[in-house]
């Protein structure tokens, strides 16, 4: 293979992954702009991904043709400008000065505290599951918004935990995007996500999920059983193993090979950072809806998680 051919393949491979990430971020920023108002956590997450895309471009600038480089830089700038508009649309905090109390005191309200009206749950809000260890966790550990609503969800800061969100009802709640951060020695059985699953800093975990987009960053020793029509993406990861999740509704998809893109490995050679699970691998069996004690959790994790190093 000539040097020019190798450079073209590197540029082509990078452009394919870059453009896929750009299109996904552009779409998600547009969706966030249509929600009034967008949560600060969503905006921060988008900003972090745009910054990561910019860093990825900086790492390969010396290997790209000048025209391609300018096109990619302009696309990053477009995303940054869209984010600035999204931030500018955020409601500003309002401050008021309290008036000094006068001599005439206001008569106390005849309504008892218990009779005060309770605020209604918003139709769309963030679901958060965080800061647990040595525990069996489910929907009962997450405050659920109004039935039938849609929501982003965040799972973070868990150690030695089983998260079972697949076998229990969500009262019609649809998770549009899932963000997972800082998990160690965890098993996650997740529902189908209508949008993206973003994962950061996982260590020795197993995940079962269906989604539209799957992106994993800075993680190691993770087994992924996924139902997905697009290509999963990894970056800054090592020893990640993939397998298609059994899905009786997508038999054609089951027969298609799972193609994973590694944005940390842009050479025209197989990535050493991910592999396919052995043929016949199956995700952990469904778990009981009832609670499990710490000893039962530890025993199940020992037989379901990847070996690690």
TrEMBL record:
Keywords: Acetylation, Cytoplasm. GO terms for biological process: post-chaperonin tubulin folding pathway; tubulin complex assembly. Residues 94-125, 271-291 are annotated as: Disordered. GO terms for cellular component: cytoplasm. InterPro entries: C-CAP_CF_C-like, CAP/MinC_C, TBCC, TBCC_N, TBCC_N_sf, Tubulin-bd_cofactor_C_dom. Residues 113-265 form the C-CAP/cofactor C-like domain. It is found in: Cytoplasm. It comes from the Eukaryota. One of its GO terms (molecular function) is tubulin binding. The keyword Cytoplasm applies. Supercomplex made of cofactors A to E. Cofactors A and D function by capturing and stabilizing tubulin in a quasi-native conformation. Cofactor E binds to the cofactor D-tubulin complex; interaction with cofactor C then causes the release of tubulin polypeptides that are committed to the native state. PANTHER family: TUBULIN FOLDING COFACTOR C, TUBULIN-SPECIFIC CHAPERONE C. Belongs to the TBCC family. This is C-CAP/cofactor C-like domain-containing protein.
